[in-house]
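Title: Prediction job returns without error message
Component: structure pipeline
Severity: low
Priority: P3
Assignee: unassigned

Description:
Job completed but the reporter wants confirmation the result is attached to the right record. Sequence as submitted:
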Amino acid sequence: MPDDPTLPPERQTAGRLVGRAEALSRFEGLDAALWSAADRLFPVRLTRSWAERVRRADDALGRQVFPHPAELAAAPGDVPDPVGEAGLRPRPFLVQKHADRVLLLVTRHCHLYCRYCFRRDQHDGRDPSESELNEALDWARQSGARELILSGGDPLTLPDSRLFAILDAARPALPVVRIHSRAPITAPDRVTPALVAGLRARAPVWMLVHCNHPDELSPPVLEALGRMVDAGLPVLNQAVLLRGVNDDVDVLVALSDALLRARVFPYYLHHTDPVPGNAAFRVDLEAGLRIYEALRGRLSGIGLPRYVIDPPDGSGKQDVADWVRGGRFG
């Protein structure tokens, strides 16, 4: 289906997505019925850019985007709202876990839907209305917080004009802004000169990207990251520890090394949040700690991410080692 020509370029998707029929013909082992069933629960979408990096449906990149049969069944340990956001929403689309910062869910849409997403059980495809967005921003400005985090969905699915309007509305009450986006990795052509210039003009804006495996760092992705860094935008990475993707010391060392070469700080390694539908990706806590201890012996201080868990009590991120020592999980 062609794009609506009235849409801004950043919202045009024709030719950028790989549909079910094409994916089934390109990647052996995919199941049409599973695709359809999973898509009804949580969208199955992948960008053409991402598909060009997938060698097999079950490789590290394929596993992240193609549905798994486990998505359709309940599993031991499933936790709806696994990071405890539901009870910490003073306004729709706004989350506040800490006094100094607020998180605004500016959209439910993504360029690519990661099958392990911790918000997959909350996806309804609805963006905030203009009044809901204004109400959330009004509350955030009066909250006393000093930092605004834009999340979703993916904020970079928004048109530049809407994204910049949100940033402008936040200032000066919320002087520091973070944008959490997977788009530089999944849809690197979204990182246009106009986007970068607009973000630079609204500094300080911190970009937190999401890359889990070194094979995600294709030349176009590295160029997109470079455009942001060259413009003076601080870029940090958040990875998720995923079974069958990066639960391997050598892979994580290679990821950190590649990020450092790209001038991106390896900020967080998240323990997988046990949202219903992502059981196939979960790594045991003790196994994760063994992997992390090995990483500590192979990575420098600037290359070692912080291994954290975001527990369902809504208390916010904590070091996994401290969490386990406290006996507060499982």
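Comment from assignee: result matches the submitted record. The two ends are 47 Å apart (CA to CA).
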